[in-house]
Automatic annotation (TrEMBL):
<dbReference type="InterPro" id="IPR007527">
    <property type="entry name" value="Znf_SWIM"/>
</dbReference>
<feature type="domain" description="SWIM-type">
    <location>
        <begin position="58"/>
        <end position="96"/>
    </location>
</feature>
<dbReference type="GO" id="GO:0008270">
    <property type="term" value="F:zinc ion binding"/>
</dbReference>
<keyword id="KW-0863">Zinc-finger</keyword>
<protein>
    <submittedName>
        <fullName>SWIM zinc finger protein</fullName>
    </submittedName>
</protein>
<keyword id="KW-0479">Metal-binding</keyword>
<dbReference type="Pfam" id="PF04434">
    <property type="entry name" value="SWIM"/>
</dbReference>
<keyword id="KW-0862">Zinc</keyword>
<feature type="region of interest" description="Disordered">
    <location>
        <begin position="103"/>
        <end position="125"/>
    </location>
</feature>
<feature type="compositionally biased region" description="Basic and acidic residues">
    <location>
        <begin position="104"/>
        <end position="118"/>
    </location>
</feature>
Length: 722
């Protein structure tokens, strides 16, 4: 990595020209008083400590020459993505404040520097995103009984009461009969479609203790492979609804029972029966041939459709189990509750569940959250959840029999940590939450929850610094943003990932500099039309801060340079793709950059941008025409249907004969005689008139019509321009 040139201390900002976001963070660190006392170790060496996020403290050394040129810098932080970190930047700003950039301690213009010149003015910044996000946090706080949680909410208890309302307590189906009822129809379906669950997979034993204890009665379903449920179920054995009937019967029976331990045993067997059923679909990627009218009503049998139905049934069952455990927590004694929970845990730890369906494995473990706030039952929740965290820890990955199972294990780790957070929060265990955050500081989900908790308590500066520090540790901040764009905590409210969180905090802090930094980042990396308003937001924000039109244009030019650089990176990453095609353009186009070009009238940027588009938008063409009228005119003429222009001289954008240009793009060809072609000519003429005026449009239109005097339809379509 090549280092930037060493400037005068007074011009230390230039050391961060390629990473303005680091400079903005350095300003924030200095403003927040994070730089300790400056110590002059030798005549040229200065030392200071900088307080980072949390309890971290970093040592920074800066070496200057006699003229206050910055000769070298060093910091003990782990950041290495760019030559200079924010801690170095903060110390440079503090050192300049103490010494001044020039040798006599003054600015180049002779005035004394005392503090940062672009401090946030005492203004109220517009609130575009924070209100919606803070409202969502308050809603989740109410749902979580005063806490923002990942998985637990009052809705579980409410649904549990609704699930039992008006239903009599049922006599529980016995274990062996339940096995027969569940597996009989499933086995009949498998036989009808010639599929079966895998007995082993690369060293993984899919067999289950619940079913093994009962011998082969359930799996075989009796002598005919159908069993009691198969005989009692009317209709086609190859129909997936009939295959699920037995599991539904056993589950509904258990959910209405107050024999909690045995009911949880039956529910656990239902989970494993569905897991085995889902596993039977493995490897069936396409609709099967030969199953026409018999199984699909004439449309053919598609195993993927049936797989989706079984998967949905499985998700629904796990949700019902979580609600049922709320009833167990309310009505069962401690020992009974512990035994019932162990039955659910047994299903969660079954190989076919934890490897084949890690998400629902985690949700089964989350059923322990029902006990978290119960004084005599919380120990069972701690035992189940903390045991799961230990069992799924990285140290045990070496025991996995197959490489493909690492993906499932990582999903389990991520969700189990989130479940553990809910446990500690519901149990009022603040130390547990802090320990979880500390031990898994790089977990995006936990980091987001930590930031949300700080925002919930209106500690926005701490939340900002927490996220900002995470982004600085990330080599690629854009990739880091994708970690939380899709999340279950603030679903749909973080389109820019971590920068959306920073945006909320900056709005609530009324920090112009921080918010402007977030806006600039979003503009530079924009790829969605929804990001276009950020140009207007930035302009409005800077105007509130006192930035005039000339200053805005200077900033727009600098920002456009960053946008162009980012587009170059996108294009380099798409080598071999035709960038003028729709798929190629989608990979590099930046709608916010387009808006910036137009609003600041950056004609050179418009020219460079439009040259990469097969059909540039009108507003970009209009901007390009301000400084490059001939090129803008040529773009429109090139978009004319072949044969519209005869290759002769057409009055140019400069006007008159002197401004005429020869357009031979389609010379020698005849215009296709069709209404659609004439309408394309009319469309381009309207674009031409919008940019160059009605008089020039009429001149071009008359030239086209004069070439085809006998085409009445053409004259009719161009009547507006004649």
């Amino acid at each position: 990595m090549s280092l930037p040139p060493k400037p005068l201390l007074d011009e230390c900002e230039t050391m961060f020209d390629d990473v303005p976001q680091i400079l903005e963070r350095a300003w924030n660190y200095w403003d927040d008083g994070r730089v300790g006392d400056l110590e002059q170790v030798t005549a040229s060496l200065y030392h200071a400590q900088v307080r980072g996020s949390g309890d971290a403290v970093y040592d920074v050394d800066v070496r200057l020459d006699d003229s206050h040129h910055v000769l070298s810098t060093a910091c003990t932080c782990p950041y290495q993505a760019t030559p200079y970190c924010k801690h170095v930047g903060a110390v440079l700003l503090a050192l300049r404040d103490q010494l001044g950039g020039s040798a006599d301690g003054r600015r180049v213009d002779g005035s004394r520097r005392t503090r940062r010149e672009d401090d946030d003015p005492p203004v109220s910044v517009p609130k575009y995103v924070s209100d919606a996000i803070l409202d969502r946090i308050r809603e989740q706080e109410l749902e979580g009984d005063g806490d923002v949680l990942f998985f637990w909410s009052h809705g579980l208890r409410d649904h549990a009461r609704h699930m039992r309302r008006g239903k009599p307590v049922s006599t529980l189906v016995g274990r062996d009969e339940a096995i027969d009822i569940m597996l009989g129809p499933i086995r009949a379906y498998e036989l009808a479609h010639d599929i079966s669950a895998h007995s082993s997979d690369e060293g993984v034993d899919w067999t289950d203790a619940f079913f093994n204890d009962g011998g082969d009665a359930g799996r075989a379903g009796g002598n005919d492979g159908v069993g009691k449920a198969g005989r009692r179920t009317a209709g086609d054995p190859g129909n997936v609804e009939n295959a699920l009937a037995g599991v539904r019967f056993v589950a509904d029976n258990a959910l209405c029972s107050d024999d909690y331990v045995a009911a949880c045993r039956n529910l656990a067997m239902c989970v494993e029966a569905l897991a085995l059923f889902l596993n039977a679909f493995s490897g069936l990627d396409e609709p099967a041939d030969g199953y026409d009218d018999d199984f699909g009503g004439g449309d053919g049998y598609d195993p993927l459709d049936d797989f989706g139905m079984v998967s949905d049934e499985n998700d629904l069952l796990v949700g019902k189990i979580r609600c049922y455990m709320e009833l167990v927590a309310q009505h069962a004694d401690s020992q009974t509750a512990g035994k019932a929970l162990s039955m659910i845990g047994k299903a969660a730890y079954s190989p076919v569940v934890r490897f084949f369906d890690p998400t629902n494995c985690s949700m089964l473990i989350a059923s322990a959250l029902a006990f978290a706030d119960s004084p005599d039952k919380s120990m069972w929740a701690y035992d189940m959840i903390e045991t799961a965290m230990e069992r799924f820890a990285e140290d045990h990955d070496r025991d996995l029999p197959h490489q493909s199972l690492f993906v499932s294990r990582e999903v389990l780790r991520r969700y189990t940590r989130m479940v553990a957070y809910d446990l500690y929060r519901r149990a009022g265990d603040a130390a547990g939450c802090e320990r979880l955050w500390r031990d898994h500081a790089d977990s995006p989900a936990l980091l987001l929850m930590h930031a949300v908790t700080l925002m919930q308590r209106r500690r926005f500066r701490e939340a900002y610094d927490l996220v900002d520090d995470h982004l600085q540790r990330s080599v690629h901040a854009d990739d880091a943003d994708q970690e939380i764009v899709t999340n279950g905590l603030l679903y749909g409210l973080l389109p820019h990932g971590w920068h959306s969180v920073l945006e909320v905090c900056a709005e609530q802090m009324d920090s112009v500099s921080r918010l402007a930094g977030v806006y600039r980042h979003i503009i530079v990396h924009a790829s969605d039309r929804a990001d276009k308003p950020y140009v207007t937001r930035l302009r409005r924000l800077l105007k509130i801060a006192g930035v005039d039109a000339d200053q805005w244009r200077d900033q727009a030019v600098s920002l456009a340079h960053r946008c162009a650089g980012d587009i170059a990176k996108r294009i380099n990453g798409r080598r071999g793709v035709d960038l003028t095609e729709d798929a190629g353009r989608g990979a590099w186009r930046n709608p916010a950059y387009e808006s910036l070009i137009v609003s600041a009238q950056l004609t050179d940027d418009a020219l460079a941008y439009c040259m990469m588009l097969s059909y540039p938008p009108l507003d970009l063409l209009r901007t390009m025409a301000i400084g490059h009228p001939d090129r803008a005119e040529q773009v429109i003429f090139d978009a004319m249907p072949a044969g519209a222009l005869d290759g002769g001289t057409v009055g140019g954008a400069g006007g008159g004969a002197a401004g005429g240009r020869r357009h031979g793009t389609h010379g020698g060809r005849t215009l296709a005689a069709s209404r659609s072609t004439y309408r394309q000519v009319a469309k381009q003429l309207r674009r031409y008139g919008t940019i160059f005026g009605e008089e020039r449009m009429i001149e071009v239109a008359r030239g086209i019509v004069s070439r085809y005097p006998n085409r009445k339809a053409l004259r009719d379509e161009l009547a507006f321009a004649l």
